[in-house]
Automatic annotation (TrEMBL):
Pfam families associated with the record: Alpha-amylase (PF00128), Alpha-amylase_N (PF02903)
Gene Ontology BP term (one): carbohydrate metabolic process
Protein name: Glycosidase
Gene3D superfamilies, alphabetized: Glycosidases (3.20.20.80), Immunoglobulins (2.60.40.10), Oligo-1,6-glucosidase, Domain 2 (3.90.400.10)
Keywords carried by this UniProt record: Glycosidase, Hydrolase
GO molecular function: hydrolase activity, hydrolyzing O-glycosyl compounds
Family matches, as InterPro entries: GH, GH13_cat_dom, Glyco_hydro_13_lg-like_dom, Ig-like_fold, Ig_E-set, O16G_dom_2
Top-level lineage group: Bacteria
Amino acid sequence: MMQKEMIFHRPINEYAYGYDRDTLHIMLQVKHDDVEAVELIFGDPYNFTEKTWNYEVKPMMKTGETTTVDYFKVAVEPPNHRMRYGFRVTGVNGEVIFYLERGIFTEPSTEIGDYFCVPYLHAVDNFNAPDWVKDTVWYQIFPERFRNGDDTITPAQAKDWGEGVITPRSFYGGDLQGVLDGLDYLVDLGITGLYFTPIFKAKSNHKYDTTDYFEIDPHFGDKETFKKLVDTCHARGIRVMLDAVFNHSGYEFAPFQDVLTHQQDSKYKDWFHIHAFPIVETPRPNYETFGFVSRMPKLNTTNKEVEDYLLRVSRYWIEAFDIDGWRLDVANEVDHRFWRRFREEVKAVKPDVYILGEIWHDSMKWLQGDQFDAVMNYPLVDSLLDFLVTQEIDKRGFIDRLTQLLHMYPQNVTEHLFNMLASHDTARLITQAGDNRAIAKLMYLFQFSYPGSPCIYYGDEIGMVGGEEPASRACMVWEEEEQDTALRNYLKTLIQLRKTEAGFSSQSNFSFVENDSALLIYQKDASHAIYTFMINPTAQSLPLEDTPAGETLLSTASGDALAGFGYHVVKTTK
C-alpha cells in the first residue's frame, strides 16, 4: 500500500506559487519510490455544467528525488487566473488515490470545497525580483584591502600594502579610487556586478560598526569619488551593490553616544534595546548587541524614529548615487515589518533595485515577494565542501542535499539566489578546499552552472589563500608573477560560458543523472540543447562511460578516462 501519510502539499510558498502573471507552479511531495505517477486535476472553481465541475487533467513531472522523498512539479495556467485543484496519485503497486485539501479520496470528489484553492492569481502578490540579477556575475570587494588609489587619505597607522601580520585592527589604505583604478582588471575578468562591504563612516577597517550612515568613510574617499565610481561602473556595464548594517550601529554612532552621556534622560534611549541604567559594557553589556559585541549596539527598528532614519538612508544612496542593490547585514535579526517597509521605500525609488539578505538558513519567510529578492546561498557552499573536501557526505548525500535545496524555494526565487563560495565571513576558497586547486575548480564549475547569481570574493580568482578572518581579508595581490593566472583564466572561461551558453545560466532546468559510477553527473536542459556535466569527486582517475555525443565545452579527460577531481562538459543540440 502507498504510504499516504508521506504525501504532502500546502497551497503556499514553494508548493504553490505564481511564477509569472499567468503561470502557477504546483509541487507535491511523496515518499521516495512509492509513487509511479502524479496528475494535477484543475479547473475554474465556477465552471460547472449543471452540477458537474468541469476540470482538466495534466501530468506532473518528477523533478527530484532523495533517499526519503520524491518531488513532482507542474506549470499550469489557471483559467481566469483562479483555480481549484487536487492530485491523482498512482502508486508503484497500481493503487490510485485522490489527494485533496480535505483528505484522501478513492474517487474524484464532487464537492468543489474539497479541493485546494488559489482564489485569484494577483501579479502584485507574486515574487518579483529584478530580471538583470540572473545574468550578473558578482565580485565582492572589501574596500580596505582591494587597492590603494589615493595615498593622501590613507590612515596614518596603515602598514605598507600587503606587509606585516594582518590583525583585526590592521589598516592598509584601500579606497574607492583604488577600485576605479582596478576597473579595467574587473572588466577583463568579465565582472558585471560589484558588491561592496560597508563604505560608510566607521572606526574599524571592516566598517560594520557604522558611525554615520550618510557619509563615506574619509579613508575610502568622498561622495564625488563614489559618484564617479558608480557612473563609471554603469558606463562599463557593471552594477553596484552596497552593504547596509541596520541591525546594529557602531559605538560612536551619535544617538548611542547621547545615550551614554545622558543615560535614561537621553531622547535616543528608545533607539536601542537597553535593559537597565546605568549602561554597563562588561563583562557583558546590559543592552542588546550584535552577538555580545558591546561596540555594536542593536537598533530598535520598531521605533518610528529609527525606522524613518534608516529608510531615509535607504532612499538616499539610490536617489543621490543610483546604486543598484542593497545587501542587508544580519538580516534575519531585524523585524519583518521593517523589511516590508524597506522594500516599499526602495522599490518606489528604483523598481529594479536588488534586495539581498544575509541569512544562512532556510529563508522562505523573507522570500515571499514582500521583503527580499534573494539571500546569500550558504547551504550551497557548505554542501560542496562537505562532499568534495571533508567528505562528510557521499555522492548520494550530496544529491539529497542539493535536491532538497532546489525544492526549498520557488523556482523564481532560486534563479535569483546569491551563490558565493567564500566571503569576508569565511576562509578563502583555496584554503577551504584544502589548498587543492583542482577541487576549487570543481566548486567554481558547479557554482557557475547552478541556478542563481554567482559571486567571486576578491582575490580568490588568483589563488589567494587565508583562513578565517582576519586572514581572509588580506591585501589584493596585483603583481602578476604572484598570481595564479591559470586559475584566473579558468574563471574567465566560466564567466564567458555563463554569458554565452544557456546551460551555464538560470534559464535551464537542473537535474541529477542517476548512475552506478562514482561520477557526479547532472544536466541542464535548455530550449535548444542539453548540457551534461560529469564531475570526478575522487583523487583517482575514473572511466568515462556512456558519454553523450556533442560538443565538448570543458574537459580534463584523457581518452576515456577522467582525471582525479576532473570534469567533462558536453553540449548536445536537440
